[in-house]
Amino acid sequence: MLKKKEKDLVKRCFLDGKVVFLTGAGISLESGIPTFRGKGGLWERYDPDTYATIEGLASVLRRTPRKFVRFVEEFYEALLQAKPNPAHLALAALEKSGIMSGVITQNIDNLHQRAGCRTVVELHGNAFRVRCQRCATGIPLEAQRIREMVSLLGKNAHSYRSLLSIFARYCPRCGVALSGAAGNCAGRFRIDVVFFGEMLPEQEVARAYALIDRCRTLAVVGSSLVVYPAASLPLYAKQRGARVIEINAEPSALSAQIDYSFTGKAGVILPEILDVLKIAG
Ligand code: APR
After folding, report:
1. Domain 34-81+129-193 is in which class?
2. For the segment 49-63, what is each residue's pLDDT rounded down to a tens digit?
3. Distance from the CA of 227 to the center of ligand 1, in angstroms?
4. What's domain 1-33+83-124+199-281's superfamily in CATH?
5. The pLDDT of residue 17
6. H or E stretch including 65?
7. Is the beta carbon of 16 within 6 A of some atom in ligand 1?
8. How is the chain split into domains, by residue range?
9. Counting atoms of ligand 1 from 1, which one is nearest the CA of 196?
């Protein structure tokens, strides 16, 4: 339950201009997707220096294909089952009411779009899309195709060569129609997620800065704020004169440097914020 001073702060922050959200894995925890660094998180069981880098993953695939397939199965398992939760829906309602001008997300789970948000900046890509490595054309990889792919990988986990040919089927060359909207440069498609050590998509970064430049409040939801460059955005917002608040189950790496931390679950606090603002969810 929000305290009186928190309700007043919500009114001050959310009714005096455009609000932008920056979200992390914590907003999707209540949809059943474990956070990366929390209990049961992917990085608790898999070393990110290996499994979050292209070189590391390629080497696991070559040397221990079964381990690679297990990782892909675990990676997609929760993503494929997840549905938007009340926190995602609250952001969509805030956008519809004109209070939120956009959400910048580090998540790759597509849940903001599925909740109905229209302006979504994806800093780390989207696990439900493949992208041409040459011309950057992006094409949706539907859940049904991912299920098919994961099942085929599981049946061929003993063979490096078979796994490569399965990937070639789901990530073909640009111009070989995937769902009708491909580019035509013959580059190879790959999953459209940003691995450790890779550059963030330039266009998305530019959109994120543009949104922050025009906002009065940046609200960070469910991010530990330890991964850069995303974690630099709250301090950039402060330099530009915006208020920065966060909604998190625990303190983040930047809690001491921002204006206010709402402590609790995003799926509880965000619907309460809608109530204070008298917006229907
Ligand atoms: N509501 C709000 N916050 C929550 C909730 C919840 N229900 N549950 C957990 N949290 C908070 C945690 O307290 C933590 O601060 O969510 C945060 C999750 O932190 P991380 O797992 O580090 O996720 P994130 O900040 O999104 O990670 C950034 O790291 O590995 C990479 O590329 C990956 O995009 C990811 C990036």
Report:
1. alpha beta
2. 999 999 999 999 999
3. 10
4. TPP-binding domain (3.40.50.1220)
5. 72
6. helix 65-81
7. no
8. 1-33+83-124+199-281, 34-81+129-193
9. 32
Tokens of 16: 């005096």
pLDDT digits (tens, 9 = 90+) for 217-256: 999 999 999 999 999 999 999 999 999 999 999 999 999 9
**Nearest atom of ligand 1 to the alpha carbon of 30:** 7
Helix, strand, coil in percent for the chain, rounding step 5: 45, 15, 40
Closest C-alpha residue for ligand 1 atom 36: 227
Of residues 187 and 91, more confidence is placed in 91
Pocket test for ligand 1, best of 23, 37, 126, 199 (most atoms within 8 A of CB): 37
Q: Which whole number is the average pLDDT over 195-203?
A: 95
Residues in the chain, total: 281
Bridge-partner residues for 188, per DSSP? 173
Q: What is the mean pLDDT of residues 93-106?
A: 97
Quick one: pLDDT at residue 177?
53
Q: Is the CB of 223 under 6 A from ligand 1?
A: yes
- H or E element, residue 27: helix 26-29
124 is catalytic: yes
In three-state secondary structure terms, 101 is strand
pTM, 2 dp: 0.95
Return the pLDDT at 182.
56
- Ligand 1 pocket check for 216: Cβ under 6 Å: no
Measured distance CA(196)–CA(175) in Å, rounded? 28
**Residue whose C-alpha is closest to residue 105's, from 97, 95, 96:** 95
**Catalytic pick from 88, 112, 124, 158?**
124
Closest residue by Cα to atom 28, ligand 1, is: 227
Task: Tell me the CA–centroid distance for residue 76 and ligand 1, in Å.
Answer: 17
